[in-house]
Amino acid sequence: MDDIWMRFMADMSDRVTGPMKFRFVLQPVMAINFAAIAGLKDAELGKPPHVWGLLSDPVQRGDMLEDGWKCVGKVFGLAIVPHLLLRGLGTRIARKD
After folding, report:
1. Which of 42, 62, 74, 93 supports an S-S bond with 47, CB 3.0-4.6 Å?
2. What's this model's pTM, rounded to 2 decimal places?
């Protein structure tokens, strides 16, 4: 188990200095940004804190989960859409299609 933990820590530290380090910072920053905006909007609408509402209000749970996935989808979109576009572009350039 110690070996797995040490390898995990080494891999994580390599990500901060290796290729794609910008994504390692950008994705959490954008997640924090979207979460803060959603939290402020929830406060304006008088909604309970998200996790508390999920646990304590079974009637609204479905709507809250759907809203949460919409917010999380934005963060995934920041990583996936550029990846798909640039990967395809890279393939075309390499093949010279």
Report:
1. 42
2. 0.60
Total domains in the fold of the chain: 1
Task: Single out the residue of 88, 53, 80 nearest to residue 67, CA to CA.
Answer: 53
43: tokens are 């406060």
Q: Which domain holds residue 65?
A: 23-95
Q: pLDDT of 24-79, one tens digit each? A: 777 788 888 888 999 999 999 988 888 888 899 899 899 989 988 888 887 777 77
The answer to whether residue 51 sits within a structural domain is yes
Q: Helix 2-17 to helix 21-44 angle, to the nearest 10 degrees?
A: 90
Give CA separation, 71 vs 36, 37, 88, in Å.
11, 10, 26
